[in-house]
Amino acid sequence: MTYASALAALADPTRRQVFERLQAGPSAVGELASVLPVSRPAVSQHLKVLKDAGLVADRAEGTRRVYYIDPHGLGVLRKWLDQSWTQALAAFEAELGAVDAPGKARTKEPRNEPHDHGRARTQDRPRQRRTRTRL
């Protein structure tokens, strides 16, 4: 089982719904079919694809099969996601390093002084008197 097969299995919206229903806990095919907009045979087919992808497993309980999320299958998917995040964060860190490099120095404002947005400070300019115009 690979992360690609897990992603392919979850690409189908109905299959994703089946998988999401199993997040609440183990269920039999009939229980899943009663809350989904597809037939019982269709749910069985979706479960087979999820099982082949390693995302779900089943166990016998009397005459019925109960399906549940397989943590080992999720581990493969999680490992792939973790690697993707590690690579994305490394690229982000490299980009920040490039911005801070001497050729592309960033200008920083002093921390304790408010930004004047291009206006002179009040102590730097003469005080002006306002006059009212009456109509």
Walk me through this protein's architecture.
- By secondary structure, this protein is mainly alpha-helical.
- The protein has a domain at 3-73: Arc Repressor Mutant, subunit A (Orthogonal Bundle), CATH 1.10.10.
- The chain contains five helices and three strands, in the order H-H-E-H-H-E-E-H.
- It has helices spanning 3-10, 13-22, 29-35, 40-52, 71-99, and strands spanning 27-28, 56-61, 64-69.
- The protein has a three-stranded antiparallel β-sheet.
- A hairpin with a 2-residue loop joins strand 2 (56-61) and strand 3 (64-69).
- Helix 1 packs across helix 5, helix 2 (13-22) crosses helix 4 (40-52) and helix 3 (29-35) packs across helix 4 (40-52).
- It is elongated, with a radius of gyration of 30 Å.
**Assigned CATH class of the domain at 3-73:** Mainly Alpha
**Strand proportion:** 5-15%
From the alpha carbons, calculate the radius of gyration and give it in angstroms: 30 Å
Q: What structural class should be given to the helix and strand makeup?
A: mainly alpha
CATH-defined fold name of the domain at 3-73: Arc Repressor Mutant, subunit A
Parts with pLDDT < 50 across at least 5 consecutive residues: none
Give the SSE order as H and E letters: HHEHHEEH
N-to-C span: 84 Å
Number-wise, the strands total 3
Number of helices: 5
Name of the CATH superfamily of the domain at 3-73? Winged helix-like DNA-binding domain superfamily/Winged helix DNA-binding domain
